[in-house]
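Researcher: Go.
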Amino acid sequence: MGDDAPFVTRRGALAGLGSVAASSLAGCSERLWSRAENTTPAQVELTIKTVPADDDVVAAKILSQLRDNLREAGIDTTHEPIPEMNLYRDVLLEQDYDLFVVRHPGFDEMDALRGLLHSDFVNERGWQNPLQFSDVTIDGHLEQQRTANEDDREAMLTDLFEYFDETTPYTVIGFPDRIGGVREEISAPAPPTRPVEYYEILSREPDDGSRDDPLVVGVFGEGLGDRLNPIVADRTRIDGLLGLLYDPLARPVGEDGELVPWLAEEVDWDDSDGLEATITLREGLRWHDDERLDADDVAFTMEFLEDTSMGSVEGGVPAHRYRCRQTVLQTVEQTDTRTVTFSFGDSNRAVAERSLTIPILPKHVWESRSEVIAEYRTDALATDNQEPVGSGLLELTEVTSDEIVLDPFEEHVFRDSSADRPDVLSDFSQYSGLRFRTYPNPGSMVESLLDGDIDLTTGMISSTEREALSDASDSMLRTASSTSFYMIGYNLHHEDLGNPRFRRVISRLVDREYVVSEFLDGQGKPATRYSSLVGLRDDEWGFDQPSDLTTFPGSDGEVNPTRVRSLFEDAGYRYEDDELLR
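Model: Structure:
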């Protein structure tokens, strides 16, 4: 299909006609109103935010390509690199941006799309609908997939993908592989990002035998030990750290994500009258401060995520994280100190199981944090949680300027080798603990690995560091596919970004194939089909219909000015003196 051809989806032609027309009229009305207010046409202006190149060189390069191509299109474009924690605050908490480029952590299950897009979350903060997107058609698809059986659910999600392509509330660029380095004596098939992956490494005996020393993991960035709050958006960006400290009822394990009981000893499912899960906790569970962990903590956590003010604010003050997983719950009933029943109504089991992966919070610590300290902000959302009290196999014992120290929690029930431990912990642990050693940038982190000061690395590294690792004699390069993806987010309250036709053009201004081949050195997958443009890898979904949104109006990352300007003119804009006017 050519650049100027109209786009009509296979399934959405009739169902989406009214909504698309309404969206187009809305965008048209906004521009007409603007022109009535401003007799002099104004050039379209945009600011793009992302992290500095030292924090994520790929995100910085994507921003540069997008900025240059927007300028070629006649748009007055500026860029603003800011530290990652500040970026997340601007985007996820304050909605202070026009466009942003980030690496999204990815989706653990397709229902995660509901948290990102459903209008139920439009007034919440964090990764709950940070774009403030509202569309009744998408809401309907997201609600229906929660109650559908497996076959019907796939068909509903296919319809959702096609309609998403028309509205484009955000743009997915591609899926970078996980790339890191590891000392040759350490058995680590890929850089760890999830707690279970750390447990797997800690359970494998190094080639030189079990250690009396900790496993040392290199990380890079500023302030990584400053924000250890598990329920906020702007928390530490060390993947997996807080998941090691706070145990859930069950964890997904292995490539197929099989749900394995963790704090739960048993989960009994019953769908005879609506779906229910009766959860029996393990005996002898303790918090890191030696208080008992029981069903009261489980019930409290689910209530607290819904409203951290505990009823003192009308409408509640939800947590910034885990809300989508929590909303599948209709009721939580505590039977005794070890038993709690979750009721899910008509939801299907795949969606319901996500609620079991929520990290459990200690009631005796977090209940007092329900105090409201500012508008729509409780102490629970403000605290850095510098001394976290969790229930994980490892507990935080020290944070310094260059190291985060996790030592064994000896009272954990899985410390007893005779306990009914998950298979992933069968040989846990071959180390005396875990250390995260912090560096200012990936170059210094990799240099430390080559010097033998750390055992492995995490986080994105550039081609220069990859070459150094490839040439090393005692360290190895490790790669694995990833569900994380680079995305462009739009402030839908912006005068032009609220127009889906405008967003669909912008979505084409990054050359996805070029990003993967040049910025990622071929280590990743471009988003080219309907499912991947939502944020689900094509090789994990199998819905292979390509989208016109991935047709780049140029080559090698540079747009053809004539082609891209034609696209904006077709979207209802005009040019004067090479400037795009609204």
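Model: The radius of gyration is 24 Å.
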